[in-house]
Amino acid sequence: MDYNFSAIEKKWQEYWQKNKTYKIDIDTNKPKFYVLDMFPYPSGAGLHVGHPLGYIASDIYSRYKRLKGFNVLHPMGYDAYGLPAEQYAIQTGQHPAITTDINIKRYREQLDKIGFSYDWDREVRTSDPKYYHWTQWAFIQMFKHYFNKQSQKAESIESLVAVFEKEGNQNVQAACSTDQIFSADQWKSWSQNQQQEMLLNYRLAFLAETQVNWCSELGTVLANDEVKDGVSVRGGYPVVQKKMKQWSLRVSAYAQRLLDGLDTIDWTDSLKEVQRNWIGRSEGASVNFGVKGNDKTIEVFTTRPDTLYGATFMVLAPEHELVSELVTPEYKEKVENYIHWVKGRTERERMADVNKITGEFIGAYGINPITGNEIPIWIADYVLAGYGTGAIMAVPAHDSRDFAFAKHFKLPIIQVVVKADDKATDPASWEESYDSKEGRMINSGLIDGLEVKTAISSIINYIEEKKLGYGKINFRLRDAIFSRQRYWGEPFPVYYKNDLPYVLDESELPLELPEIDKYLPTEDGQPPLGRAQNWETAEGYPYELSTMPGFAGSSAYYLRYMDPKNNQELVSKEANAYWQDVDLYIGGTEHATGHLIYSRFWNKFLFDLGLVCKDEPFKKLINQGMIQGRSNFVYRIKDSNTFVSYNLRSDYEVTEIHVDVNLVHHDVLDIEKFKAWRAEFNQAEFILEDNKYICGYAVEKMSKSMYNVVNPDTIIEQYGADTLRLYEMFLGPLEDSKPWDTSGIEGVHRFLRKLWRLFFDANGSLNISNETPNPGEQKTIHKTIKKIQEDIEKFSFNTSVSAFMICVNELSELKCNKREVLSNLTLILSPFAPHIAEELWSLLGNHTSVTDADFPGCNEAFLVEATKTYAVSFNGKVRFTLDLPADMTKDAVEKEVMIDERTTKWLEEKTPKKVIVVPGKIVNIVV
RNA sequence: GCCCAGGUGGCGGAAUUGGUAGACGCGCUGGUCUCAAACACCAGUGGGGUUAAACCCGUGCCGGUUCGAGCCCGGCCCUGGGUACCA
């Protein structure tokens, strides 16, 4: 009987479905293990061979854990809201829900063919009202809570109101967007509207006028992580800064906890580093500068308060609110022109000329609070409105940006720090500023002579004492803008009364997405929901017109999988207590600053409310590498329809043309298929080498336009899902990027056939012996059991596949068909190649699924070796090997080596200076 | 610019973490089987050198530590990814 993979795979996929093999439930008799894949956005293009890489890895791990006795939660679902379906709807009028449904169906078919062990009864879709019910619900909770900095957690708005009523807000330490202080009496005197307006400054989900990334092409705002290089990540459209009233989530309140949490989780250092940079904690001081002839103060944030004596000017962001007040009449026009110019530039233009130094003096002077010196105030676009206070004190001697600015505008530079043993020099002669924190203060009054680090703490103490400022920690992490002026997203459970937002009662959820006639903004520029009929509460209050962004639905999906059908709560206490958190999360590194920050924030919030038992949602996280495409090229001779083979191309003037990799096998072009590929090649002529047309190749991104996309369905048809699974793993380390080259797949396919043949005799009949395996056979299988277990636990699946190949090669050599050996082999292979494993398992006479068996243990007794092969080297160069008993002492080994005639030969009658014996491994003789 | 990975045969990649570099697979060469092909099997395959061997060279480059370095240290070059005026 041949290895008929198509029949076998079909049979077992049906069996699994029929028997609900992968359906799991809470089972308190077993330890839980939660393995999660980042759920996909179901795009219209379907899966290519790169997508399932991480899914295969997590599936192997899940199956392994199950064999090890764990109750494994391994779910899958869809991040079903998103721009492409909506863009398609705009073009064609087809409802995005329909597009999404079609795409999901296709994804599901493709996924099913690969043989994953997902419990599909737990599937979630973010666009399903039963699912987004809980996305909306979480939003309501955020609206109803604020972040108490003292307790470092979310607390209810009612408790905050109680404090306001009792003592106003002077003692409240909360993450909020106002610095207005009020008393209890004031609070009580306010109208409901005024109170609501004040509370919006405290809520974790709040509505506020903010500087946003506006993308007019998409007609919506974007989050920081959705913008790259000044254009939208999806689509590549230009993005400009704009002030708009938007919903935001106060993610920044959790900055410190998001940072601290990183130390408690098992993620790669590089990913943690990306998050640390994104959170961007910096310690320093907030210092108030006076303004000459004005009672205003300008608050600046600096990480180098030690350099206060070196501040020679100040710079405000062009958007800074004090600019218009402080600018003197004679500079007014220039300043306004400059501001106008800055506003007109897109983010991208700004980034294109970061090195261009621009700015304007505003005519006013700030007063250095510590020296009393008057220093000019400038505006410049190198100071960002969004960071710190949007104003800086410039210390050109010790900050490279200030230095460049001072040089350009010929502003004074004063040195206040010298390197350890150096003397002060004239900054006018400097090529660059001295930014390092190594050194000693000079020209610095109070802190003169101090080391930088002591100077910092000493000056902070001083300014706090004199009430000139205070020590402060700043974060780069911004609040997340949560409104999108789009249709295909979760509606906000929000309505407006007197222009102020109120949330719906929880009993009214889900607030379902209404139907609209066109998926475009309204004529008067309202978001698409402005077209919906009766989009208002029963009382006639209008609903919010924006929808939520992509990260809303993906922020708590891992919790929903624990209890996906629960329509009373997001997740039951019981389910959460059992499944707790994700033990292993596998996904792409592109979510480092978006999803992985937002969902950690979301989870921490739910944790504060006592709704989930873990502060961090993802215990261990692995980023699978990208599968790159391997493109093939043909070479057309200029102005002809003749193609010349790769190695002959240098004799001609040729154009390199991408050719579909599916027409090429081992870099040899299938000429007939090529001719049929496109009409223009129908009459093509070829100059061959060795009767073949050899194509060139290059590693590029896998994409349609490079004609290098390989579809898993095609591979499965030709070689089967088990071969695909093994080959994806065999390609290289999981976390590395590597090119996909279908050529190599034949090796793993051969391996599976060779494995199959172990079970059959020359006539093709099943032939399994019940004899006891001999020591050689035992050694082979037990060393493989050990290796596979070790490899799986460190996610080294590529070396596992090699180990299986070596094992089968050895067993073939030994002509081993012993039941015990083959059973063990089938079991350890089953996480990798589940279909063939099920088939072989049943051929071995078992009547239950291999997934219900136990992972075999390694019996070390079979691995003990009687002899060891020693490499004998002279001055580090290995000259010969020698087999010696494994238990031989070092001295005896040395003696044996020294009497060997080959040693005598290599010594050339010299006396060895030293002999090093590493037991069981090597002997090195130093001559 | 800064941060993080990483540079090993024609290719994808191994190397027990300082102990025989190139496992395993692809490709290639030769052979067996076949009318032929496919499949399968056997042998070879880092470079130089030799009839064959001996031997020499070899993990991006230069230097160091060590009995011994792909692995550790210092400096440099290159590739990929992230990030970008964050005070």
How would you describe this protein?
The structure is a single chain. With 927 residues, the protein is an alpha+beta fold. It has 5 domains: 30-129 and 551-620, Rossmann fold (3-Layer(aba) Sandwich); 139-254 and 479-531, no CATH class; 282-475, Isoleucyl-tRNA Synthetase, domain 2 (Alpha-Beta Complex); 627-709, no CATH class; 865-926, Ubiquitin-like (UB roll), CATH 3.10.20.590. It is built from 29 helices and 35 strands. Strands 10, 11, 12, 13, 14, 15 and 18 form a 7-stranded mixed sheet that branches. The two termini are 62 Å apart. The model has no long low-confidence stretch (mean pLDDT 90). It binds one RNA strand of 87 nucleotides through helix 10, strand 11, strand 15, helix 14 and strand 31.
Distinctive features:
RNA-binding; seven-stranded mixed beta sheet; 5 domains; Isoleucyl-tRNA Synthetase, domain 2; 34% helix
